Amino acid sequence: LPGRARPEAAAPGPGHEEFRPRIVPYYRDPNKPYKKVLRTRYIQTELGFHERLFVAVLTSKATLNTLAVAVNKTVAHHFPRLLYFTGLRGAKVPHGMVLVAHGDERPIWLMYQTVRYIHQHFGSDYDWFYIMQDDTYTQAEQVKALVTHLSINQDVYLGRAEEFIGGDEQARYCHGGFGYLISRSLLLKLHPHLDSCRNEILSVRPDEWLGRCIIDFLGITCVSQLQGQHYHTYELAKNTEPEKEEEEEFQAALAVHPVSDMTLMYRLHKHFSRIQLDRTYQEIQDLQMQIRNLTALTPAGEAGLTWPVGINAPFLPKSRFEVISWDYFTEQHLFSCPDGSPKCELSGASKADVSEIIESALEQLNSRYQPLLRFSKRQLLNGYRRFDPTRGMEYTLDLLLEAVTQKGHSHVLAKRVSLVRPLSKVEIIPMPYVTEATQVQLVLPLTVQDLDFVGNFLDMFAMNTLDTHDNALLTLLFIYHPYDAQRVSQVDVFAGVKAMVGELEKRYAEVKIPWISVKTEVPSQVKLMDIVSKKHPVDTLFFLASVWTEINMEFLNRCRMNTISNWQVFFPVHFQEFNPALVYRAEQTASSGTDFLRDGHFDRHSFAEACFYNSDYMTARTKLAADILDRDEVLDSMEVFDVFLHYSGLHLFRAVEPGLVQKYALRSCNPRLSEELYHRCVLSNLEGLASRSHLAMALFEQEQANST
């Protein structure tokens, strides 16, 4: 790994370390058999990275439903991981809190068990451990910023340093009321001595006991500042009014103690949030001023300054097909509806969005022109909005306003304003951990119209899964028309497919490919899945495939990673290649392997492919059955996607999937299915013919040929 090296002539100053790269040569003992190295999926795991900060909150029976709840509602969501610890056994846990009960309310025992628990469960996962009481208000963002400036290689015991009563003048312990920070290295060194501390050290206060334990066995005392960072605290007096506190010590405090009740906790949170917000706005203004000053020195000059300052410039389309359209709206209606209708009522999130943006426009106008003018809204004349993926949501409003002067004179005027709701900081949503070792059960429904494509499907399945020993199985679902089912003893329409399956089973002795025969005129996806679901265990991971799908290991791994039991189902959008007769014509050649996603499109009309767990499907299917009762004909108009969408509380992950590439084929659309499903199938066929440019060229050539 590269490091930081000091020039030979320079001498390292105080507090400076010298880092040099060190190359570790690879050596393998020729006398030992070669063993394949198992690599981790994430580089973070292999390099031994840890999460940054773990927070422990000590609570009690008297304050669990009051102060602890207030802590959870104010600062808990700012920390990456926070747990509550109590000595109460069998306590009823308030909603949204994770509680660890030790079963003994003695303060020293609670501290001893808490430190042991943290070491046992989180000692190898986090770099810093912050321990606080529930009567402490902590500025979470400041604490997170503090640990980013401290070295993780040192033994740190940081907090509000207090003297022991009658003890050594040099020794200090960290006051528990103001919280304290412990590094991972110190926790690892302290753990072997916890039992000795419990038996040998007598103390009334748990924070004194822990401080004495660290000093006696590790020789480390509590400090209030380290590596140039200060741990600021403030002690609240009785009947304190947070809004009236103007002391610099209070404004800079990371922790405030004691907080006597929930109301005071909320008032403190509001006050410090306002301070942080004002500080952020001031930083934004300073950065915008710097951007303006620097832009004037660039070749483009002030013309290169974008609005708003500091936000990305609007997206510039390279062709007319890339132009982002504006959606028109009023205060009552939206004229670009999700269902494609030309006009619909403004409601829900869209209505709240429009109301908020109008209020924001008035607030900005009044802040700019007051006290000379004061504006109030009469009416929204016109509203336009569009989402620009490079910067956020853009708005243009035509407002009918009433302007009132300082002397009370009023005037009605129309004014156009532009606003931007910029994209905020991207947050990583925590998801349950999954691996790529899960077995995938492929389910392939087949009709008579699919017989020409089965051979290619089985060849790709054998090459990409059986030859590579991928953990995947295949089940075929033969869908017989009633007429074909009656003649199956004389002529089996699927006899050729069964012969190909037999050849595969001979070639791969350990592989069995079962099939299920179904007789129906209307091959409803839900009814077919009901049959398959009953024949497999509840923990089966299904991949519902289509005959045009070319199976590969890359997609199967994404199927495993994107499907989470009792959490998420995955509906990939496959890439559909265009008709080669229209795209390439006689004189053109197919696209190269490096550009295989060029001559086609992602088919958003198709929901044929899906990855989900059998247990999740059975749960959703039970709710569906209770809703429709015995009206089985409703199932003919539904797909598996509809079952999960309307009858499960799971996340539905719908995303383009470059690993699923399908060759062009004209799909057979069954008119016996519902009107919506038939219409989607027809649209899929039409849009899969070729791009606009290819279709235009084909029409042009046809007209040229007809004219001659």
Automatic annotation (TrEMBL):
Residues in a coiled coil are: none
Keyword vocabulary terms for this entry: Glycoprotein, Golgi apparatus, Membrane, Signal-anchor, Transferase, Transmembrane, Transmembrane helix
Q: Where in the cell is it found?
A: Golgi apparatus, Golgi stack membrane
Question: Looking at the UniProt record for this protein, which Gene Ontology cellular component terms does it annotate, in alphabetical order?
Answer: Golgi cisterna membrane
Enzyme class, one word? transferase
Q: What is its EC number?
A: 2.4.1.-
Major subcellular location class = Golgi
Q: Gene3D superfamilies annotated for this entry?
A: 3.90.550.50
- Signal sequence span is none
Q: Which family does it belong to?
A: Belongs to the chondroitin N-acetylgalactosaminyltransferase family.
Record protein name field: Hexosyltransferase
Organism of origin is Pampusana beccarii
| Designated gene of the protein | Chpf2
